Amino acid sequence: MGTRERYSETLDVIFSGELRAPIGVLIVIPGLTDGPDSLEYARSGDSALGVGCRARGVALARFELSSGGDGYGTLTLEDDARELDALIAHVMKTRPSVREVTLLGHSTGCQSICHFLSTRRASVASVNKIVLQAGVSDRDWYDKDHGADVMRAWIERAEAMAPEELMPADAPGTYGVPTNARRYLSLAKPGGEDDWFSLDLFDGTNDAASKIPTLVGCEHIDVRLVVSTQDEYVPYDAETVLAHAERVRASFERIGVKSATALHLCANHDLSDMRPEDVPTFVDFVFS
Question: What are the distances in angstroms from CA 165 to CA 168, 180, 185, 246?
Fold first, then answer.
């Protein structure tokens, strides 16, 4: 349901419940392996965000990155940033009524947004708000799923490989997806390009530093963190989740963003089990 438009030579965007003259646009950036229909809360014009957008005169934009599906194994956050830049340019060119652009990222989509902001592209100036839903750590999950010592050994092996060389099929963390050494290190190595939200980047127990302090030119942006206390891809308890989320929120606040607030939901990674009574709270938070 919606209007499909080509915004680059090979990529499409779907505008759900398109309005004649929207005052804003909410762009949903999916996570690893995901596409435009992956998130129940943003799937169509009848979804929670679809209804919320329509009520507020906002267009809901859903698209699939080239890194969607199995593509992430050989592509980078920079590839995501380039495609997001092209999409924002398309929106601003084709919808002159738009005054506000919100980027909502799910999972790795949060990393894509943060990397995009770090590139300081001109289109960053058009972004008024970012919503980071389930911005979690691949590295923390890999260490829990496979063991930290096992992962360290595989990181050393990847560092000895050519960047574009594919990891062995049995490399932990590839999960059957052809993955080159560059992306493997990005996801699994402390301080890798994808390493934005690991616990030890914020609690002082690792020499690798958080990248959030490097973001500049974001004073005009509102930051919203949507934190799932029952996220199945987070290997620490709910109390640690909340403390970690506060450190991440405070990091954004310290760089001088317009505002930085967090919403805690008793829900899983993609909010598919969000309680009905929490849905209006979530939607209002996204648009607050």
Answer: 9, 5, 12, 38
